[in-house]
Amino acid sequence: MHLTILSRKAGIYTTKRLTQAARLRGAKVRVLDPLQVEMHLDGKAPSAFYQRKRLGRTDVVIPRIAPSIQPYGLAVVNHFTMMGVPVLNDANGIAASRNKMRTLQLLSAQGVPVPTTVMASSASDLKAMVELVGGVPVLIKLLTVGERPGVMVCESLQTMEAALEAVLSMGHNLLVQRYVRRKRERDLRALVVGDRAVAWVERRPLPGRLLHTLARGAQLKAVRVPAELDAMAVLAARVVGLEVAAIDLIEGSAGAMVFDVNSSPGLQGLESATGKDLALPIIGRAEELARG
Fold first, then answer.
1. Cα(183)–Cα(189) distance, rounded to whole angstroms?
2. Quick check: 196 and 234 in contact, CB under 8 A?
3. Residue 42 contacts by C-beta under 8 Å, 6 or more apart in sequence?
4. Which of 25, 229, 231, 244 is most buried, by the most CB atoms less than 10 A from its CB?
5. What distance, in Å, lies between the first and last C-alpha atoms of the chain?
6. How far is CA 181 from CA 168, 250, 270, in A?
7. Which residues are paired to 4 by β-bridges?
8. CA of 80: how far to CAs of 1, 15, 36, 87, in Å?
9. pLDDT tens for each residue of 102-154
């Protein structure tokens, strides 16, 4: 098998682990910076170049597209699809996962439980929005193009009105989401590959940090979950259109809910917490697509 990994740098932990796992299974691997891939169309067969040299055939592509290069990166992923190459997460799935409201819409439409959420482009009806999700406290997510969403927890209307007016005046949209009271102060993250969840961890905030600031540091620990959570995580990935995904869940009094889907999950924290080789099942799924 000849495998292409689209990644800005070969030395990134997840990219390096995928390369190692593929070579252990006898695959030939090349890592390409998506921004250096040149796409060629002439009305006939599409082709691709890398640093002005024509790319040879590859059997399967694993895209690791950073949000900062999303428009060009997704065009490259689409181009490989046009060339008839299987991709492990296509451009549509990646784009849907990066649009947080679209993700929640897709999940809700298929019966996957999600937190009560409203979206707006203006803070003029902020009080009504908060009432729609059950009142304060609420979780506010500021949505920006090509970046990670900003997150804040607000316990009163007064504490957020001035700040949100300023943010919205800069053209950002926002999600207002019910702040779910948890059975335990943790989130759950599943790594889904194909039709199974290959790893589960709980994520607890560092002392003095809010639970929803886990991207800034958290304690990860491997856990076991009921079979119904396995099924929920796999369904969430399938609904968004992803072969490989991290699915984030919260456990409230009404049961578990999916609050985020990540199409380019990092492996370092997950492997450290579980002690598992998580690159191997991803390569195995790539091999299945290449044969498919």
1. 16
2. yes
3. none
4. 244
5. 13
6. 27, 9, 25
7. 30, 61
8. 16, 19, 14, 8
9. 999 999 999 999 998 887 666 666 667 777 777 777 777 767 655 455 676 77
pTM as predicted:
0.88
Q: Tell me the two tokens of residue 138.
A: 């609420």
Query: What whole-number distance in Å separates Cα of residue 96 and Cα of residue 89?
Result: 11
d(CA 213, CA 152): 8
Quote the distance between the C-alpha of residue 80 and its chain's center: 21
Cα torsion 109, 110, 115, 116: sign = positive
* Residue 205: φ, ψ to 5°: -70, 155
CATH level 3 topology of 2-89:
Rossmann fold (3.40.50)
CATH of domain 117-178: 3.30.1490.20
Question: Domains of the chain: which residue ranges?
Answer: 2-89, 117-178, 182-263
Confidence band for 206, pLDDT divided at 50, 70 and 90? low
Instruction: Assign domain 182-263 to a CATH class.
Output: alpha beta
